[in-house]
């Protein structure tokens, strides 16, 4: 009797789910993805980081040196009265201002003032206020002169009975740790659970009676952050509860505090992010959300958005979760978190026993790191959620993924996503137009930071583990073939097939590198000359279309000949397409593929498995 033939295929890929058993995942969903994006049904490696040449400029021995912003504390974007964006960076005990692709300049603090450990920058009208914690007064940056100064109470332009300010606030805004500018008022957090709301159109003063609120209805947890939900409603997050302040308009006489939930709250205030009309935030449950319904009702969604990646959420270092950051850009949510298991170093944080400068010793082995001047609770991964597919896309990791602050700024005619790492460098992130297939790294030493020097290119390690292919049958099978359709450029690809047990595995592809000179169609065609002297870069049939600026000889040295564009030109985005089929000799109930690429760029279009039923064995491998 002929054996029943079973085929299982993923014709494309949409996202990942780490919570369910791999055999229970729907077609197109993968069990794990690292440094990947899923677009139009194709899984591909994320764009590399582009390290921007922005920093502290000085002259050393006649050369222009650009150093990183050491010990960064905060960063933000301010739009001046002329509608020009200015990036502000608070680092060490200085505040710097700079325009995109321009030199950073120090904005002096008032005499005797220092930054402090907690810094928040908030734009109010044509000025920026800087909150520096509960022990330091608020400072303001005047928009037309860009000079820091102490905040002086000014008179209200709108005042009197029947107005938003029936009487002028009698006190200056208190020392605060966090705040937002909302409906022409500055709203700040001070103390454990107290809130100050400034006068209307006046951020310098508040009324301690009508403009002061205590966010507490019997809960003892600490206030961690706030956000706006609509023009008249503020949401306040505590560690284990959430409150709404409604009717924030007029003279505040109708403002009402309501408890939304006491089941969970926000554990990291800097993760509170507006996503359309909703608000997302990190709780001990994971990434949660507040939803505004079509009827205008506000709901706390009990099931976390991060449920599909709960194994990663469980690895968060909750002791240092205050370092977590979140932002929303281009239909994606980016959540930077400190993982207790340091993937870069392959060791638990508790096993790090010695720290000296930029080196640590893990179990006696010395390892260099680039996370600023302290190895303590930094972010080391970014979790990416795609709102278009409504699935998690990736766990992004790399040498420079110590995110201190996300920055959304205009660069080359578009608003793009940057982040400042704890190393002090600013990186363009997840940009398909200006980022390459490698992460750019700049040195920390002054002598190597000559302006215009090339960044070091670090290959990205992309990892993807597919779902468990059952062939619609949970019974035991003989697996005969596995197939993958992919396209690549300068890749180094490995694929391992995984069975039911740790010993049930076999290599499908091992560290495959495609030749940039050899043709597969026709096989006897003369090799391509990488200097492009024959003006034939785009000729069909070559294994790889990667471009090098200078040709290398067999001994690895640069040839004197440089790359020639020719009259036909080149396309740096060309990728060769492959359809690979391999025989498999494994038995079991399911088969997974672990795909790893360690250089260049690769796209995974589809994966398939062919098997037949096999009831002759119940355990073990062939």
Quick summary:
The chain contains one helix and 54 strands. The protein is an all-beta fold and 622 residues long.
Describe the 3D structure.
It contains 1 helix and 54 strands. The strands form 15 sheets. Strands 1, 5, 6, 47, 52 and 54 form a 6-stranded antiparallel β-sheet that branches. It has 622 residues and is an all-beta fold. A hairpin with a 2-residue loop joins strand 21 and strand 22 (202-206). The protein is globular. The model is unreliable at 342-358 and 360-375 (pLDDT under 50).
How does the helix and strand content classify structurally?
mainly beta
What's the gyration radius in Å? Answer: 28 Å
Task: Give the quaternary arrangement of the chains.
Answer: single chain
Mean pLDDT: 88
End-to-end CA span: 22 Å
The proportion of strand residues reads over 45%
Gross geometry: globular
Strands, total number: 54
Tally of helical runs: 1
Give a short account of the largest sheet: 6 strands, antiparallel
Please specify the SSE layout and strand pairing.
Elements: E1 5-10, E2 15-16, E3 29-30, E4 32-34, E5 36-39, E6 42-45, E7 50-51, E8 56-60, E9 63-67, E10 72-79, E11 85-91, E12 94-98, E13 105-107, E14 120-124, E15 127-131, E16 139-142, E17 148-150, E18 171-172, E19 178-182, E20 185-190, E21 194-199, E22 202-206, E23 212-214, E24 223-230, E25 233-238, E26 242-246, E27 256-261, E28 273-275, E29 278-283, E30 286-292, E31 298-300, H1 310-313, E32 325-329, E33 332-337, E34 341-342, E35 347-348, E36 352-356, E37 359-362, E38 365-368, E39 381-386, E40 391-396, E41 403-411, E42 414-421, E43 426-428, E44 438-441, E45 456-459, E46 462-465, E47 477-489, E48 492-498, E49 505-513, E50 550-552, E51 558-562, E52 576-588, E53 592-597, E54 601-613
Parallel strand pairs: 2-3
Antiparallel strand pairs: 1-54, 4-46, 5-6, 6-54, 7-43, 8-9, 10-11, 11-12, 12-13, 14-15, 15-16, 16-17, 18-22, 19-20, 20-21, 21-22, 21-23, 24-25, 25-26, 26-27, 28-29, 29-30, 30-31, 32-33, 33-39, 34-35, 36-37, 37-38, 39-40, 41-42, 42-43, 44-45, 46-53, 47-52, 47-54, 48-49, 48-53, 50-51
